[in-house]
Amino acid sequence: MPMEKTFDPAAIEAKWSHEWESRGLYRPARPDAQPFTIVNPPPNVTGALHIGHALDNTLQDVLVRYERLRGKDALWVVGMDHAGIATQMVVERQMEARQDKRTNYSREDFVEKVWQWKAESGGQITGQLRRLGCSMDWSREQFTMDPHFTRAVVKVFVDLHKKGLIYRDKRLVNWDPKLKTAISDLEVETVEVKGGFWHFKYPLADGVTLDDGRDYIEVATTRPETMLADMAVAVHPDDARYKSVIGKDILQPITGRRFKIVADEHADPELGSGAVKITPGHDFNDFEVGKRAGFKPAEMLNMLDGDANVIQTADGLVPQEYLGLHRFKRDGIDGARELVVARMKELGFLIPHVDKDGSEHDAEPRTIQTPFGDRGGVVIEPWLTDQWYVDAETLAQPPMAAVRDGRINIVPKTWEKTFFNWMENIQPWCVSRQLWWGHRIPALHGPVREEGKLRYSTVGDDQCFVAETPEGRVQEAEEFYGKKVVVAPSAENAMMGAIRQAGGFEADDFVICWEDEDVLDTWFSSALWPFATLGWPENTELLKRHYPNDVLISGFDILFFWDARMAMQGMEFMGDVPWKTLYLHGLVRAPDGAKMSKSKGNVVDPLGLIDQYGADALRFFMAAMESQGRDIKMDDARLAGYRNFATKLWNAARFCEANGISASTSFEAPAATLPVNRWIIGEVAATVAAMESAFAAYRFDEAANAIYSFAWDRFCDWYLELIKPVSSEVERGAIDDETKAVAGWVLDQILVMLHPFMPFITEELWTGLGDRADYPLITAKWPAPAAEKDAGASADIDWLIKLVSELRTAKAELGLPPGARLSAHFPASLKGRTDKLAAQLDRLARLEAISFDPAPSGASAQLVVEGETITVPLEGVIDIAAERERLTKALAAATKERDSLAGRLNNPSFVERAKPEAVDKARADHAAKEAEADRLTAALARLG
Fold first, then answer.
1. CA distance 411 to 475
2. What's the CA gap between 799 and 865, in Å, rounded?
């Protein structure tokens, strides 16, 4: 059936995506082949395909398709993350829309509603990945809340706990008061907010004064409300202003709390007064200062509840009027911040800010880098609470050793320094979240035993029992207490209602315990992805065959949150690295280089790009622009260019079909005698070698550009032109059998080499050019031409291409039509070559006469090709004087514009003050005018 006249991506993409998957071609049975394994960073079950996904998954698919073509047992693991916070929020929002809420249900009933939502609406991204052409093993699609995966998560938690690598601790966390959970650093967005910087007097106690006679120390803060929980003032140990008062007391004006002035290098003598108020329970830096000052976390004061409303501190010194207030103004109602400032001002302890006009203000206006929860949308509060932590410092040691000794190869190498800097300074990893959706922490809590008595507590001071099953946890608890254990669903139930569920036991006959209510951080479960997806903790054949994975492709932005943690868990539980190579790519940015964000309105929808340009064009753009260590700027012109590339290939295939060129029956290169055929076979061999070298170095851009250059330039633009049959008025020309065989073989090699980047069009052409339904391209063989460059043929054809290019350039410069037939005078040394290539010179160079006599006097164009000068007489062909005048005027205009632009670019004021896009445009315009001036200069030189 003849090919369609026009290339329509939409018509073929859905067809082939379904065909490949339904026939099991993404994972053909190759039990004896060398395995190649890659795991897909699991997208959130709530997610939709964004441009970052498009880049990440394109690069993975390019590698998987390449290795599959090389005959390997290529497994690309696919699945989704349960996305604890994001998913719970989606379901709760749906409830709110129905005037319903989570707390109207039991935990179990709410979780069941989440599962219902997943079945009905979750996972739309999997269909979108299919549209992109991702050849994942969809038959084994994973989900981090599947039973087998949950078992792996629980086992890892329990085993780490037994080794002392997971523990409970009281530390500061990023607390989201809207979602009422701890969140990770990745889920915190820093936003510039207009705020204030307040200065206060903190009076010295007991009549102590500074050396200058002042009876107070000046402190400044952007969060005045936190002074309700202040526990110290820090000064630098070498700051002469305060040496005499180190160890003395401050009397806090509002609470009346006495606390010490401590020496700590956190205080910078060059910043403000050099003295810093310390609130260890509500500031990450202050927490560390507090520990160095001797405060245990349990002793640090907490002044806020989970809603960020003021509560009484453990010492009972917060005045009654503050209790219940929000931390700062909310919904137009003043909070603790506003009241603290007002009271300090009334008491005479506010130091006003004086502006440049001499006017006084309570605070100095400041733009403050403020942390917001990326989902809750409110200011994050550093909050002191009991959470579960992983001893990340211990787990970080094996991965660091693996990177140092080369077992893990980070590409590009420049990221190694960042990796080591983070790992060497790693902090305990908070893995508990206060949610209902997720892997519930396998811990049972009970009362502590003190002097033979049991004491119940709801503030984290309790006894913990960790085991893989509820029965195992109860058994541990009963062995510890020596009594029957009754389990309540929460700490509050344990305190209030569990006795009624005791089944008739007297209080002395049982102990009430309660299940841990928290779930694990999503990153904890996804850290097991390289081995839990393969069947661990069972020692499955799949696990033995495909662990460690070969490569992980990841955005650099999750190097710490996911990649490093996979390395930790993989080496801890598998005793080997999770992958041999870690490839880190950059971000996809807006055309002006700005980071994409919804607030800026510059987010690009990859599905819209697929609709406009086709999936193949988008994939090729991503790969061709992926240069190690650099971000990618979106560029519609390039996308259109790659769509045109696909169209050009389609038209080349139609030309072949029309001229009797069909699918090759030879894996190796056909026998060839004609120079043009020997040349193109050598070009295939060189392209295969270039691509293999690029893939080995993870240079996606070089591999893509190698096949692009060969397919567009060497094959479409030159080879097909060189073999195009000559037709006369009487009959249509024909292509000889040797050339048909070579052309069909070369087109096949192009389709195979291009397939990893453009799978849809290549499979369509592969099938359309030959009857090989039982040998689809996706599982074909990577080229092995068994040929090398033919030096003689390459020299002849490369010379011909250069000559024709020079002639075409000269015609364009001199205003001659492309089809104009000219005569040329060649050096006698080129006679053998011109005789050999006479037909091509007549058709492509459009030379009506070739002479080896000296060129006549008069105007002529001088073409220098590989050091030899070919002369093309111009007398009688063009009006030399008029052409010289035209070129001279055009050169003057181009030179003037070039120099004007150079003047702007050499002006520091323009470069520094103009918008970046304006500077970039000026540079591009200057380069264009400079090139135009050079071209016109060359054209004038040709006229002599």
1. 49
2. 7
Instruction: Report residue 587 as tokens.
Output: 């971000």
**pLDDT per residue as tens digits for the range 379-389:** 999 999 999 99
CB within 8 A of 183, min separation 6: which ones? 85, 173, 174, 175, 176, 373, 375, 376, 380, 433
- Cβ atoms 445, 491 nearer than 8 A: yes
Return all residues near 938 (Cβ < 8 A) that are at least 6 apart.
813
Give the sign of the dihedral formed by CA 434, CA 436, CA 437, CA 441: positive
Radius of gyration of the chain (CA): 37
Quick one: CA torsion of 72, 77, 78, 83, rounded to 10 degrees? Answer: -160
The average pLDDT across 293-304 equals: 94
Cβ atoms of 583 and 623 within 8 Å: the answer is: no
DSSP states along 480-497: HHSSEEEEESSHHHHHHT
Residue with tokens 């009334």: 346
The predicted pLDDT at position 733 comes to 62
Integer CA distances (angstroms), 664 to 296, 770, 786, 816, in order: 77, 8, 15, 41
pLDDT-derived band of residue 501, with 50, 70 and 90 as boundaries? very low
Residue 99's pLDDT band (cuts 50, 70, 90): very high
Question: pLDDT per residue over 264-284, tens digit each?
Answer: 999 999 888 999 999 999 999
Give the pLDDT score at 629: 79
**Does 499 score more than 70 pLDDT?**
no
Q: Report DSSP letters for 854-917, one per residue.
A: PPPSS-EEEEEETTEEEEEE-BTTB-HHHHHHHHHHHHHHHHHHHHHHHHHHT-HHHHHHS-HH
The confidence band for 661, taking pLDDT boundaries of 50, 70 and 90, is very high
Q: How far apart are CA 153 and CA 235, in angstroms?
A: 46
Of 605, 616, 639, which is closest to residue 10 (Cα–Cα)?
A: 616
93 vs 95: CA distance, rounded Å = 5
- Rounded to an integer, what distance in angstroms lies between the CA atom of residue 553 and that of residue 38? 8
Q: Is 421 exposed, middle or buried (0-12, 13-18, 19+ CB in 10 A)?
A: exposed
- Tell me if residue 367 falls in helix, strand or coil: strand
Q: Is 78 exposed, middle or buried (0-12, 13-18, 19+ CB in 10 A)?
A: buried
* 868-897 per-residue burial string, b: 16 or more CB within 10 A, e: under 16: eebbbbbeebbebeebbeebeebbeebbeb
* Residue carrying the six token digits 């043009």: 676
pLDDT number for residue 449: 86
Are 664 and 670 a contacting pair, CB within 8 Å? Answer: yes
φ, ψ for residue 586, nearest 5 deg: -85, -165
